Backbone:
């Protein structure tokens, strides 16, 4: 048993030191965080510039409201220190007898000369509620949306205002009457033992999608991170005859057990780091109520099974190959099963209590993902279903690890062409 | 005295291929035993069975007086043919790891590691990674990895191949040092002169069968004093068609001639044809014996080695 730990420790250290793992566990969150921070920073930086734009108003009623809104906006920007957006400066262009085409050509030139940033054409028909003509906005920099967004809301409001007043309708009354009723989602209330009723909690997006996705992705990552490492080391050991040295000292069973223990520990380490991060994030968001130690317990149970099952399959299949290329094609089906299990489980989030979700969470390969999602979504599956799913998973894991052990034993000393499926099955039976 | 390795009527078949056929062999304790034989003749299979990496189909193998189990292997050091090292691991960590897998503690291992790194002039490389080492250094590290647990029996598969003379010499000295301290050493080699010089006894396996087993003297006696070494003005060409010549091993300036008949009669023929500078009746070298046994099947020898 001590040797199993020695192997596990060596595997663990080897994996934890790989660039892949270091990037996955440390650099990824840092990079992501850094990217978000940069985007936030950059988003604010761009907006300091004043934006001058031309307005061709054929309605004759819209330039004034736009000008008024621009003044209000500029006053607010000045007050808040440019954190809300740019200052905007509309200039009126008198269309005279020119056609739209002549105007767009002329104004496009002015944009190119950087006299103005953009221009907007307002057809006279805009005031007609039956007309479907749009507001026409032209800019060299169409991906810059601050100005177009501002114009869209400002002009829409102004057009509505004019239409209402021309129809003789009081706009404030309309908006009061057409106000929508709010709709809030709550979880169920419970009657406690002491007779009081627990307050119904409002369910938000973090609870509804954030937590299930977090566990789903973490489960997948924890299994995937170790897979590539397992394949690489086993092929290296085979190619450089290390496996022969190892088998001269330990049994194939000890070797495999040590490796599995090593990767399960790495999966746990990775999970703890991310779970810790998750808890920290929830505390930052002021949602400590969503921290659920029971869920973490279930997660670790399912993770052990998933890591052992997929790990032993990857191990057995790579032990049967003599180089990385063979291993890649050999392992493709197993990888596909892992990825498919992950993908179909996303469906479970939409309908955690459907028959499909129940069936999926009983299938051994899918259970770690599907059942985990169902557990995260209140009210959760009935306990007997969880235990049944876990038992099926655990039993299959034992069978898979056993079969993988048989293949591993034969495969490690094989050289040359990788075996096909019937041959693999023969190794298991032998 | 119990033999270090006792193999009794062992048989191993891979599919239809008979790798080892009814092999019986004793390796006495404290000896240096050479395993020779062409590629694919069953050397590696035999060694793997001794190591309990694969199991014989029939027969019995005892190592150090016990049936081989995984725990008895803790006293066996094993060096497979070439490589066998993690490229990314540091030398010291690797040696510790291999020793720990034999059940030794780091405290026991470190002095041994230090001794051998010093002895083979690798101390300054102890904290370097294997892939930073030259091939010769890696081979020495590999050798240390086989003896780091201080085995009573050391099995080396082709330990000297590809080493420069200096490194080969230091490994040979190391093997002798181990033997003096009581270790039994078994090694396989294709280099017949190394086997002749180093081994107390030699075992040859050919197509799964034992064809030679004994000391060099015994083997040479078995194959007779029928080889002469000649140096003549006429060289190898003159030897063609002389009566009694069975085969010629041409070394350029000298030729080893295997005779079917009387050496004196051969010498008389030779003097008539050319001037003789050297004529020596020798024992057949191990090389000659090996070639004599293995030659008829040179074509079959090209088959790849079966695991």
Residues:
């Amino acid at each position: 048993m001590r040797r199993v730990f020695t192997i596990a420790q060596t595997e663990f250290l080897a994996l934890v030191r790989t660039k892949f793992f270091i990037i996955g566990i440390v650099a990824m969150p840092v990079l992501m965080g850094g990217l978000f921070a940069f985007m936030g920073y950059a988003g604010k930086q761009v907006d300091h510039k004043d934006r001058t734009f031309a307005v061709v108003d054929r309605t004759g009623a819209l330039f004034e409201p736009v000008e008024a809104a621009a003044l209000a906006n500029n006053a607010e920007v000045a007050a808040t220190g440019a954190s809300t957006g740019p200052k905007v400066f509309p200039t009126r262009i008198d269309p005279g007898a020119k056609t739209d085409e002549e105007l767009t050509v002329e104004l496009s030139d002015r944009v190119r000369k950087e006299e103005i940033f953009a221009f907007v054409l307002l057809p006279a028909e805009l005031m007609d509620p039956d007309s479907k003509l749009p507001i026409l906005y032209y800019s060299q920099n169409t991906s810059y949306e601050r100005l177009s967004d501002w114009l869209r809301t400002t002009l829409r409001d102004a057009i509505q205002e004019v239409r209402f007043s021309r129809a003789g309708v009081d706009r404030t009354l309309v908006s009061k009457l057409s106000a929508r009723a709010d709709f809030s989602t709550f979880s169920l209330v419970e009657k406690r033992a002491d007779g009081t009723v627990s307050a119904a909690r409002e369910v938000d997006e973090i609870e509804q999608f954030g937590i299930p996705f977090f566990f789903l992705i973490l489960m997948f990552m924890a299994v995937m991170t170790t897979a590539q490492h397992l394949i690489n080391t086993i092929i290296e050991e085979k190619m450089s005859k290390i496996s022969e040295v190892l088998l001269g000292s330990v049994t194939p069973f000890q070797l495999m057990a040590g490796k599995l223990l090593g990767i399960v520990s790495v999966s746990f380490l990775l999970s703890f780091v991310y779970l810790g991060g998750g808890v920290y994030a929830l505390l930052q968001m002021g949602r400590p109520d969503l921290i659920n130690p029971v869920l973490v317990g279930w997660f670790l149970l399912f993770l052990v099974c998933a890591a052992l099952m997929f790990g032993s399959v990857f191990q057995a299949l790579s032990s049967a190959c003599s180089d990385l290329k063979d291993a890649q094609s050999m392992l493709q089906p197993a990888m596909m099963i892992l990825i498919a299990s992950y993908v179909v489980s996303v469906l479970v989030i939409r309908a955690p209590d459907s028959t499909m979700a129940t069936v999926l969470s009983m299938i051994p390969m899918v259970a770690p993902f599907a059942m985990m999602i169902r557990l995260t979504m209140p009210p959760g599956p009935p306990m007997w279903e969880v235990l049944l799913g876990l038992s099926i998973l655990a039993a299959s894991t034992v069978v898979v690890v056993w079969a993988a052990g048989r293949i591993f034993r034969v495969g490690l000393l094989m050289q040359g062409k990788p075996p096909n499926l019937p041959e693999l099955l023969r190794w298991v039976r032998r | 005295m119990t033999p270090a390795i006792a193999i009794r009527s062992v048989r191993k078949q891979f599919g239809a291929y008979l790798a080892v056929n009814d092999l019986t062999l004793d390796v006495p304790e404290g000896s240096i035993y050479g395993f020779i034989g062409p590629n694919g003749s069953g050397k590696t299979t035999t060694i793997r069975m001794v190591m309990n990496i694969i199991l014989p189909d029939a027969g019995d193998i005892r190592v150090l007086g016990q049936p081989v189990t995984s725990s008895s292997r803790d006293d066996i050091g094993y060096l497979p043919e070439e490589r066998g090292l993690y490229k990314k691991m540091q030398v010291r960590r690797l040696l510790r790891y291999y020793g720990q897998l034999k059940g030794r503690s780091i405290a026991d291992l470190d002095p041994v590691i230090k001794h051998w790194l010093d002895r083979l002039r690798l101390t300054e490389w102890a904290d370097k990674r294997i892939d930073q080492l030259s091939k010769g250094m890696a081979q020495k590290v590999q050798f240390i990895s086989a003896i780091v647990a201080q085995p009573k029996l050391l099995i080396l598969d082709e330990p000297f191949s590809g080493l420069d003379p200096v490194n080969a010499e230091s490994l040979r000295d190391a093997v002798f040092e181990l033997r003096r301290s009581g270790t039994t050493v078994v090694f396989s080699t294709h280099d017949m002169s190394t086997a002749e010089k180093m081994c107390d006894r030699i075992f040859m396996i050919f197509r799964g069968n034992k064809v030679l087993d004994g000391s060099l003297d015994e083997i040479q006696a078995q194959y007779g004093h029928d080889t002469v070494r000649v140096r003549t003005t006429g060289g190898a060409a003159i030897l063609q068609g002389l009566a009694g010549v069975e085969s010629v091993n041409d070394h350029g300036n000298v030729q080893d001639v295997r005779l079917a008949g009387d050496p004196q009669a051969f010498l008389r023929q030779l003097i008539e044809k050319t001037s003789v500078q050297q004529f020596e009746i020798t024992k057949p070298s191990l090389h000659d014996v090996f070639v004599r046994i293995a030659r008829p099947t040179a074509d079959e020898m090209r088959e790849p080695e079966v695991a």
The two ends of chain B are 33 Å apart (CA to CA).
